[in-house]
Design goal:
By secondary structure, the chain is mostly helical. It contains 6 helices and 2 strands; from the N terminus they run αββααααα. Helix 1 packs antiparallel against helix 2. The termini are far apart.
Length: 185
């Protein structure tokens, strides 16, 4: 046995209780015990231990039943949830302005949106512009005006594809070879 202070599991406790019951019935069939200032007979001690074993078994059965009930609930929610949502939407569409009729179904009509004040609108516009500037985002026409800034492209022709190692001397670029020499002063 290890020197841990953790609480034993229900299965361990049940096994220990069942072993105590079996050992007591085998070795002390007609015994009498005084434990913590209380007198027990074999039958009363075994009855006390059986009470704990029965309680553990009942707890395990309740847990299993709960797991089954939760699984059933999840299945029913998955099946009925979309229908309830569609029905609620239909009720809102059908009785949109009749608050009392919707209340009979336990449905509340959505609140009407309150328009923004001029100060809130101005703040939203300023925030939106600031965000676009900070991120560098542009509109469609500004993006079309942006052009690349490429000045010269050097194309290196492949002489033969069979060689996997580069040659020792690099080929002279075509643009430099065909360019006329500039006069020196």
């Amino acid at each position: 046995m290890s020197n841990t202070t953790s609480k034993p599991s229900k299965a361990t406790t049940l096994a220990r209780v069942q072993a105590l019951i079996a050992g007591t019935n085998k070795h002390f069939p007609n015994g009498s015990f005084t434990l913590e200032n209380t007198a027990y007979t074999t039958a009363s001690l075994v009855g006390l231990l059986k009470g704990l074993a029965d309680a553990i078994a009942a707890t395990d059965a309740a847990h299993a039943s709960t797991k089954e009930a939760v699984a059933t609930l999840r299945g029913e929610r998955a099946k009925v949830g979309p229908v309830m949502l569609a029905y609620k939407r239909w009720l809102l569409t059908t009785f949109g302005s009749a608050m009392q009729t919707l209340a009979d179904f336990g449905v509340q009509a959505p609140k009407a949106r309150t328009p923004l004040t001029s100060e809130q609108t101005a703040a939203a516009v300023a925030k939106r512009e600031s965000t676009r500037k900070a991120r560098g985002t542009r509109g469609k026409k500004q993006k079309l005006a942006v052009k690349g800034d490429v000045t010269g492209v050097i194309v290196t022709p492949v002489t033969h594809a069979g060689s996997s190692t580069p040659s020792a001397t690099p080929a002279e670029p075509a643009s430099k070879a065909s360019a006329p020499a500039s006069p020196t002063k």
